[in-house]
Structures are given as C-alpha cells and as structure tokens.
Amino acid sequence: MKASSMKLLSLFALLTLSSAATLQKDNTITKVVKLLQNMLEKSKAQGDEERTVYGKFKCYCDQSEATKNANIKELTDQIEVLDSKIAEIQGDTGGLSAQCADLKAKIAENEAAQGDATTIRGKENLAFTTEEADLKQAIQQMKEAVAVLSAVGADQQQAGGDSKQFMAKKSLLSVKAQVQDALQAASALMNAAQRKSASAFVQGPFTGTYTSQSAQVMGIIKSMRDTFTTNLADSITSEANSLKAFNSFMEIKKDSHKEMSASYETKQKELGDNDGELSTKKAAFSLAQKEKASDQEFMDKLLPFVRR
Q1: How many angstroms separate the CA atoms of 107 and 258, rounded?
Q2: 64 contacts 297 by C-beta, under 8 angstroms
Q3: Within 13 A of 56's CA, how many CA atoms are on the CB side?
Q4: What is the C-alpha separation between 171 and 154, in angstroms, rounded?
C-alpha cells in the first residue's frame, strides 16, 4: 500500500513538473513572439516613416532641382545681358573720353587764339595811337610852317619880294627853326630829291628875300601836310576796320568757346553717369556670377541623391 502510494505521488510530482516545464516553455515562446511582433510593428512603422521622409526628401529635391535650374537659366540670361551692357557702356565711355579730349584740345586752341588776337590787337592799337599822335603833331607842324612861310611871303606870286613888316615882328631865326622842325618831321616821308631840297633850304642862309627854293620847300611842306592828313585818315579807317574784325573774330571765338564748353560739361556729366552705371552693372554681374556658381554647386551635390 505504501509502495503504491509512493509511486502515485512520484507520478503526480513528475506530471506536475512536466506541466510546469511546459507552462514555462509556453511563456518564453509567447514572450519571444510578442517581442518579434513588436519588432515587426516597429520596423513597419519605421519603414512607413522612412518612406514618408524619403517622399518628402524626394519632393524637396525635385522642387529644388526645378527652382535651381530655373534660377540658373535666369542668371545665365542676366549675366549675358549684363556683360553686353557693360561692353556697351565701356564703348560709349571710350567714345565720350575721346570726344572730351578733342573738345578740351579745341577749347585750349580757342583760348590761345583769343589770347593771341588780343595781344595783336593791343599792339595794333598801340601802334595806331602812337602813329596818330605823331601824324597829328606833324600835320600841326606842317600847318604852322606853311603859315609862317606864307606870312613872310613865301607863296607870293612875285619872286624876290621881301616882307620887312613881318620881319620886324618875328625874327628870321625863329622862322627858320619852325620850318626846320616841320621839315624834320616830314623827312621820313620825303623822296631823295625832296629831302635834298629841304636840307639845302634849312642849311642855307635865310635873309627874308625868297627865291624859287623857298617856294619849292613850301610845296614840299604842303605835300607832306596833305600826305600826313591822308595817312591819318587811312590809319583811322584801318584802325576802325581792324577793331571791327577783332570784335567779330572774338565774338565767333567766344560763341564757339561757350558751345564747346557746354558740350564738354555735358559729356563730362555723361561720363560720370556712365561710371556710376558701369559700377552698378559690374557689381550686379559679379553677384549674378556668384549666385549662379552657388546654385550650380548646390545642384552638383543634390543630383546624385535625386538620381538614385
């Protein structure tokens, strides 16, 4: 009885241990299964998330590619236009610079011509005033000499007469001195024969008895007086014409100078405007080149990811 009971107890214990082992095994598998299920669910969630992220990344890449390509094309066109405009401005600036240099040279020539003309006009006027004074003085001396000779009877119709009444009032010495002064003033305009007659008259004795020689000298003095009078009139006319020509010349030169100076100032302003515009265009050109290079670098790095 006792042996039988012991066997039963042993069997029960064995069955109990077996059930416990089985139960323990089932719990371990369940845990493994649950762990695998969790991992699968996490993997699936991560896969969904990765697909979402990749989709967003792909969308970003596509949009960036389209945007950058459009921007690169626009910048390429902009760079081409700016390069052409810069070349145009530089060409225009070169032309304006040449024109300014030419105008500056012509303005300098104009000013030099005005200066030369003014100097010449001054010399001409000085020569005229000097000649005018000399001629007026000579004419007056001629008139006084003629008056003196006439007063003592040098132009009398009858030769050999004398004028004692005149000699009583005026000395022969003073008459001769006055006539001599007149003849010396006229000597520069005399021909050789006239100068010889005048010299003989001045150096010869003056007694108050007038011969044909005195009449000849009277003719010389009158001729010189008339010549001087004509010369004075011609000199006055010449001075007036010279002054008129000078004024006309100066008016033309001043008008030309004013016109060229205005043109020079205008072109200088255009040059300044060109310099400002050229600086702006060059800055824009450089900026566009840098932006294009940056976009191109971005695309070079992006495309390998887009084309995977």
Answers
A1: 9
A2: no
A3: 5
A4: 15
Number of Cβ within 10 Å of residue 147's Cβ equals 11
What's CA 163's distance to the chain center, in Å?
82
Q: How many CB atoms lie within 10 A of CB 294?
A: 14
* pLDDT tens, residue order, the chain (308 aa): 445 555 555 555 555 555 555 545 556 666 656 666 676 667 666 666 767 777 777 787 778 778 888 898 999 999 999 999 999 999 999 999 999 999 999 999 999 999 999 999 999 999 999 989 888 888 887 887 777 767 655 444 444 444 444 443 444 556 566 666 666 666 666 667 766 766 766 666 555 444 455 666 777 778 878 888 998 999 999 999 999 999 999 999 999 999 999 999 999 999 999 999 999 999 999 999 999 999 888 888 877 765 55
Pull the structure tokens for residue 215.
Answer: 């009449």
Q: Tokens 């003056």: give the residue.
A: 206
Alpha-carbon distances, residue 134 vs 109, 124, 140, 179 (angstroms): 37, 15, 10, 17
Kindly report whether the global pTM for this prediction surpasses the value 0.85. no
Residue (of 260, 254, 14) closest to 114 by Cα position: 254
The 3-state secondary structure of the chain, one letter per residue: CHHHHHHHHHHHHHHHHHHHHHHHHHHHHHHHHHHHHHHHHHHHHHHHHHHHHHHHHHHHHHHHHHHHHHHHHHHHHHHHHHHHHHHHHHHHHHHHHHHHHHHHHHHHHHHHHHHHHHHHHHHHHHHHHHHHHHHHHHHHHHHHHHHHHHHCCCCCCCCCCCCHHHHHHCCHHHHHHHHHHHHHHHHHHCCHHHHHHHHHHHHCCCCCCCCHHHHHHHHHHHHHHHHHHHHHHHHHHHHHHHHHHHHHHHHHHHHHHHHHHHHHHHHHHHHHHHHHHHHHHHHHHHHHHHHHHHHHHHHHHHHHHHCC
Residue 144 neighbours by CB under 8 Å, 6+ apart: 178, 182
